[in-house]
Design brief:
The protein is built from four helices and 33 strands. Helix 2 packs across helix 4.
Length: about 425
């Protein structure tokens, strides 16, 4: 069976029940292992925040962990030194420790009794402040404050938005008959279970505002596309036509979904409004057309098709028209996903019998293979476009792998309790 056909089969065998968001069990927690890092890492010191001992050093540990895992920063040993945002740093001392940047802060209580996390970021070499902010939150949400602070540090030192406050979705297979759709912070913590089923779950797709997930359910003995509100747990049917309804992908404005329907015979690409109205057919061929993805500007839909004899990537206008082939290097290229800036396309290509993550510069069509693994699938970009999350295998188990767009920075994400598959990286928090 062709891999493309196999992928289509997987789209058509799903049955799951929808449950309210529940706290996930500890043995299914996602852990992250750094397997590669950037060459010129920025040395940063994160001093212990004043008043944080009572909060278990949550904020500083989150900040340090976020910056270290991303592969762009080198953590400087602080020797347990505690500094508040109002302290006068001894810049010569921090310079002698090798730090280029220093963060200091404090954890206190706001007037309404909630926790208040304050921080300031310094340029050690210039002995000047770069940024500072305060976040008022509840004690259980101090981790979120740590992620926000790490985002600010990342942006000030790299010039690009940080992604530590974003969320990811992924599927965990526990045993032989339990499948769970998890939602977690980008560091794998604070996970929740959104869906549970005795049958496989695939293809979660985040809405652009991060409030909804689209998915396919076989609970009515046929594949049906639903949109699930994460806050309320309510859902609506978006596509329930004769035959198969699968592979939902959101438009950038959140108003439409691209889906694969077989209501007229073969698998073709359609668009449908997020409320289920306004169905429009995009492709017309005798080929298998699947795995749609909108371009960031919403003007085009990229998809996989075997209309040329082997699975390749094509592009069609979002309003329909003539499809144009995009991939030409190699005989098997599938699962197109566009970078947030629209300049690059991640996809899976077959190389020497292995299925590997590749990225194409859409301006010059140059292709770079980013992994050396064997069974990569389901690429998804981080919202800043710097990392790509994929599903792959290690030791016969499904794991996730995050790879920088240049291939230099790598992370491996896994759970001790089972296989991890079907990743989807959510948008920036509004």
């Amino acid at each position: 069976m062709l891999p493309l056909v196999s992928s289509l089969r997987r789209l058509h065998v799903l049955v799951f029940s929808i449950l309210a968001l529940l706290q996930a069990t500890a043995n299914a927690q996602l852990t992250i292992e750094i397997t590669g890092a950037g060459g010129n890492r920025i040395p940063v010191a994160i001093a212990d925040f004043g008043g944080e001992a009572s909060a278990g050093r949550v904020v500083t540990s989150v900040i340090r962990g976020d910056l270290e895992r991303c592969g762009l920063f080198k953590m400087v040993d602080t020797g347990g030194v505690a500094l508040t945002e109002t302290s006068a740093p001894a810049f010569d001392e921090w310079r002698s420790r090798g730090a280029d940047a220093l963060a200091a802060g404090s954890i206190g209580e706001s007037a309404d009794g909630r926790k208040e996390a304050r921080f300031r970021l310094y340029d050690v070499n210039k002995a000047s402040a770069l940024a500072g902010s305060a976040f008022v939150t509840s004690k259980p949400m101090l981790r979120a404050a740590g992620h926000r602070i790490a985002d600010i540090i990342y942006e000030k030192l790299t010039g690009e938005p940080g992604i530590f406050s974003t969320r990811i979705a992924y599927v965990v297979k526990v045993g032989s008959t339990r499948y769970e759709l998890h939602i977690a912070d980008a560091d794998g913590q604070n996970e929740q279970v959104a869906l549970i089923s005795k049958e496989p779950i695939i293809s979660p797709s985040w809405s652009p505002d991060g409030t909804r997930l689209a998915y396919v359910s076989f609970e009515n003995k046929k594949p049906v596309v639903y949109v699930h509100s994460l806050a309320s747990g309510k859902r609506i049917v978006v596509a329930n036509f004769k035959g198969s309804n699968s592979a939902p992908a959101w438009s950038p404005d959140g108003r439409k979904l691209a889906v694969v329907l077989s209501k007229d015979g073969g698998s073709q690409i359609f668009t449908v409004n997020a409320d289920g109205s306004g169905v429009q057919r995009l492709t017309n061929s005798n080929a298998i057309n699947t795995e749609p993805a909108f371009s960031p500007d919403g003007q085009s839909v990229y998809f996989t098709s075997d209309q040329g004899g082997s699975p390749q990537i094509y592009r069609i206008a979002a309003g329909g028209g003539e499809a144009q082939r995009v991939s030409f290097e190699g005989s098997y290229n599938v699962t197109p996903r566009l970078s947030p800036d629209g300049k690059s396309m991640a996809f899976i290509s077959r190389r020497e019998g292995s299925f590997r993550l590749s990225v194409m510069d859409l301006a010059n069509r140059q292709v770079q293979v980013l992994t050396d693994s064997h069974k990569d699938e389901s690429p998804t970009f981080a919202p800043n476009g710097r990392m790509i999350l994929i599903a792959t295998e290690q030791g016969g188990r499904g794991v996730l792998s995050a790879v920088s767009i240049d291939g230099r920075i790598k992370q491996r994400l896994s759970v001790s309790a089972g296989d991890v598959r079907e990743p989807a990286w959510g948008p920036f928090n509004k």
